[in-house]
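Need a sequence for this fold. Nothing fancy.
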């Protein structure tokens, strides 16, 4: 029933699919080389020129855990002046310390560059599996959720939107297959603390069209038919990794069910370091190019400039 309401609402409102390019964050966080801040700034500029709605720029996490993104503050300073009107910049924050840094970045952008709000959205992240939550954040799912309560409230006080990521929605590299209900339970907690958007992560690219359908239906049910949030953006985003080449088919099924917001990365960069095992490296995100093709194949539209996307993808691939 909720699936029908969700699909009908979204059909009336959005035939245009919203894309967040996560290449600068998810794309670079697991690389063995640490990419120079100037090159990251260039990547952000090329990616934003493609016409995506949002760029996930970096993370305010412990540099001991993710040294690759230890320059997040400098990066934001370098791109501040070239932020286009209407584009959303977002960054991951695991706790209040990360949020404090995001707030400081916004304050200094206001002071130094006269920009009202540089970072529009912060993203908290947890998992549907205990094993992944521990490896990724050194905390149980419950502990991460407790950490997020003040983050969500304070981010809103500072005028920032909040995305709530749930990793391992299909399978966890440590705990195995995940029940869609476990994903739904974490979702319900995040919704009740006031996140503006739920982002479901198929962290290791294990989804098939059948399994993604089950979890998306569960998610739509938990959203109780609410397809857009108070900012007019979709409440549900899908974050697919493309390990076995199923991501585009999964995106198509999700679009049939009414999903109108996806993450992807220029050049297909990406992968979570804690999703890797000793034998295999975490796979990349679905490439923005592949996602755009899937969207057009589904009869829907995007605001993407194909030439700019080819430029950004080429630059991204050559970075690593
Ligand atoms: P911890 O070691 O338990 O934290 O890590 P702690 O509170 O004990 O602090 C340890 C040190 O980190 C201290 O410094 C803190 O100050 C510092 P010290 O006293 O040792 O010098 N610290 C921080 N520094 C900067 N910024 C912060 C911060 N917090 C603490 N925010 C913690 C816990 C959560 C911090 C750590 O586990 C962490 O940073 N994890 C991040 C892991 C990560 O970024 N993973 C990738 C993102 S998730 C992902 O990729 C999945 C996604 O793509 C979706 C999908 O595909 O599924 C989103
Ligand atoms: Mg990811």
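Here you go.
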């Amino acid at each position: 029933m909720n699936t029908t309401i969700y699909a009908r609402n979204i059909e009336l409102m959005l035939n245009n699919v919203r894309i967040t390019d996560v290449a600068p964050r998810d794309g670079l966080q697991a690389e063995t080389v640490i990419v120079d801040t100037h090159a990251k700034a260039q990547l952000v500029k090329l990616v934003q020129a493609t016409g995506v709605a949002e760029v996930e720029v970096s993370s305010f996490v412990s540099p001991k855990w993710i040294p690759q993104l230890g320059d997040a503050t400098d990066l934001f300073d370098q791109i501040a002046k070239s932020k286009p009107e209407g584009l959303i910049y977002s960054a991951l924050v695991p706790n209040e310390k990360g949020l404090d840094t995001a707030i400081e970045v916004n304050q200094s952008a206001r002071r130094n560059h006269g920009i009202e709000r540089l970072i529009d959205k912060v993203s908290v992240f947890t998992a549907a599996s205990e094993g992944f939550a521990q490896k990724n954040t050194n905390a149980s799912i419950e502990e991460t959720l407790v950490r997020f309560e003040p983050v969500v409230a304070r981010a809103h006080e500072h005028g920032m939107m909040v995305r709530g990521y749930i990793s391992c929605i299909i399978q966890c590299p440590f705990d195995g297959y995940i029940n869609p209900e476990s994903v739904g339970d974490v979702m319900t907690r995040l919704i009740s603390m006031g996140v503006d958007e739920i982002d479901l992560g198929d962290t290791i690219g294990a989804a098939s069209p059948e399994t993604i359908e089950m979890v998306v239906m569960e998610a739509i049910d938990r959203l109780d038919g609410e397809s857009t949030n108070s900012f007019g953006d979709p409440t549900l985003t899908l974050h697919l990794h493309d390990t076995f080449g199923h991501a585009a088919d999964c995106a198509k099924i999700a679009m049939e069910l009414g999903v109108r917001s996806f993450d992807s990365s220029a050049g297909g960069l990406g992968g979570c370091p804690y999703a890797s095992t000793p034998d295999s490296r975490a796979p990349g995100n679905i490439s923005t190019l592949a996602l755009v093709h899937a969207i057009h194949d589904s009869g829907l539209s995007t605001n993407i400039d194909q030439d700019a996307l080819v430029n950004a993808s080429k630059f991204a691939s050559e970075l690593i």
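For context: Residues 26, 29, 59-62, 64-66, 92, 94-95, 97-98, 125, 136-138, 165, 167, 201, 203, 239, 272, 274 surround 3-hydroxy-3-methylglutaryl-coenzyme A (ligand 1) (CB under 6 Å).
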